[in-house]
Design goal:
By secondary structure, the chain is of the alpha+beta class. 51% of the residues lie in helices and 15% in strands. The two termini are 37 Å apart.
């Protein structure tokens, strides 16, 4: 394989159809606190699960740039669907780090396997004959109710030193789900708790976490697999927020259109036309700025050759900064929407809740991202 960018997989072209279906079922999905099966099937059929799957296993091994065009389209109509699509794409990319025998096992039925998981170091593992004994409880595993496999991080004792983090792939029969997801936003992601009760995982279904963190993919891997996780991890969580902000702006603009066309000075209480003009201009501009930030992260990851350490921490900074900008945008739009935007049947209030829930993810916190960036910049001088 070469480092040339592959042909586009088509997720961007398929995204509008998936978005329309998801929007029609968003309320039901919120009530059920998980993505509707037909929407998840549409996400898979659109190519999100196979987006980063190696070509040797029938996948597309496609670009991060195309994902930046596809995921926000879903997010504008249903951020939880966008989040779910980004998660299955991300976890399939991680699974490409498995040994060849493990990759053949996980994609033996084709590249559309739905893989979920967690890189939180909350599980435990120990060496055993033929592999590893794994156990643990991983909270906040999105889309887990619809999963075929899970990729989970667990710590392995090293005999006195710091435990080694490893990732383990388990089939659906090896874990159970406890329904614990109760957040006010992103309800339809079904981010429940995955529980493993001391299961044997063969060697071929495990790899060292440091390989994923440093981009040390198996020999012959495509360029999309040789990107260190920290350089792109924030992208998968920021793109749904970008889409949600774009959707919120569209809803608000429809509400504000008569006011934007009206007189400059509206008699009686309430803001004049200038307020709505400034809200529109500022919010649309900040959305454009956030999009430019995430597009640069994607373009850097798609470029031949692994991102430099500075580019890696810059990508973390840019995703966290974009999430902050977008949260501010949606807050401003929500406040400027009047009581009509606050109704429980308004899409705007759902987008507002979803954005705050998504932006609370640990990967999108600006303080640690800024510390990593500052440390790298200071060390380079």
């Amino acid at each position: 394989m070469t480092d040339q960018l592959p042909l586009e997989s088509g997720v961007a072209a398929a995204a509008p159809g998936v978005a329309a279906l998801a929007a029609g079922l968003a309320e039901r999905a919120e009530q059920e606190r998980r993505i509707s099966p037909e929407v998840l099937r549409a996400v898979v059929d659109a190519g999100f699960a196979r987006h980063f799957v190696p070509a040797a296993h029938g996948g597309t091994q496609a670009t991060y740039t195309e994902l930046t065009r596809a995921v926000p389209v879903l997010g504008a109509r249903c951020p939880a669907t966008a989040w779910s699509a980004a998660i299955v794409a991300s976890l399939s990319r991680m699974a490409a780090y498995l040994p060849e025998a493990g990759r053949k096992e996980i994609w033996r039925d084709g590249p559309d396997t739905v893989i979920v998981g967690s890189v939180s170091p909350v599980g435990k593992a120990r060496a055993a004959e033929g592999g590893w004994r794994v156990r643990g409880s991983w909270p906040y595993v999105s889309v887990v109710d619809h999963s075929d496999w899970a990729l989970l991080l667990a710590l392995v004792p090293t005999g006195g030193g710091r435990p080694e983090p490893r990732l383990f792939a388990l089939p659906r029969s090896a874990y159970r789900v406890e329904h614990t997801w109760a957040d006010i936003g992103m309800r339809a992601t079904g981010s429940n708790t995955l529980i493993v009760d001391d299961v044997l995982v063969p060697d071929e279904l495990s790899f060292a976490a440091k390989d994923l963190l440093t981009g040390r993919a198996p020999e012959g891997s495509a360029g999309c697999h040789r990107v260190p996780l920290p350089a792109v991890n924030g992208l998968f969580f920021t793109l749904p927020v970008l889409g949600a902000a774009e959707g919120a702006l569209a809803h608000w603009t429809e509400y504000a259109a008569p006011k934007l066309r009206g007189a400059s000075h509206v008699p009686g209480p309430g803001p004049g036309r200038g307020f709505y003009e400034e809200t529109l201009a500022r919010c649309s501009g900040e959305i454009d700025a956030a999009r430019l930030l995430v597009e640069r992260v994607a373009a850097t990851a798609d470029r031949a050759g692994a991102p430099t350490p500075l580019e890696t921490v810059r990508g973390q900074r840019d995703c966290a900064l974009a999430a902050d900008l977008l949260t501010g945008v949606v807050d401003r739009l929500f406040r400027a929407s009047g009581t009509s935007g606050h109704r429980v049947d308004s899409p705007l209030q759902r987008l507002w809740r979803d954005v705050h829930s998504a932006a609370g993810h640990v990967v999108l916190q600006f303080a640690p991202a800024s510390a990593a960036y500052a440390s790298q910049v200071a060390g380079a001088h």
